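As noted in the main text, all predictions were made from sequence alone. Below is one such record, for Peroxisome assembly protein 22.
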Amino acid sequence: MPKKCTNGQDCRKYKSYENGEDNNASILQPIILVGMIITFYIIFFRMFKRRFIDNSEFGRKTTNKSEYSKPIISLCLNDIVLKIIGNNAHIIENVIEPLSKLCSISEVFVVAQVSNDTQETNIINLLKKAGVFDKGLKEHRLMFCSTSNGRASMIRQLRPLTHVDNDETVIKTLTGKIPNLVQIYGNTNTGGNSNAFTSLQAFTQVICAVATVEGIN
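Prediction:
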């Protein structure tokens, strides 16, 4: 029931008290609202980070645009980028430019099959000397294996969008496990395979054209 005032002074005191309560409530309401919003965003951010940012599946769910925002392509170096003879290796002619272009439109991981540590060291030094790591390829994305089965296993774990290889056995092993498989032949006889190219240059020309249409590069 509303309070009855016995005189004017009591009424003024009561109204002043009511106004004070209203002012306190009006101050507390936005503070409580802001606190609720901050709490919500803290909880949401933690859930968001745990689900996306902490996921290490090579950027498939990351929201960081600077990391893995481009399609992932894995590439076998043997007989496509370099030739290994004994413990020595040399870069195949005219492959540095297409490799650099490939690195500019995708996240490139490369793998070389070697038989000993000396070959591995020589390949690293060769790529450094050729300036490959200064033209888009990141050194920590250079991988090594000792067998074709090991190479296929590494690619399966990497799970790229596209894998480029020259070994038909590796291609067959990865069929159905990797979305796109491209085989590089050393000659013009591709057996009518639409996913086969005669060189890295030929493949890069096609993939760059696709990237232009998709607005990647």
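The mean pLDDT is 78. The first strand starts at residue 72 and ends at 76. These features were considered when defining construct boundaries for the mutagenesis experiments described in Section 2.9.
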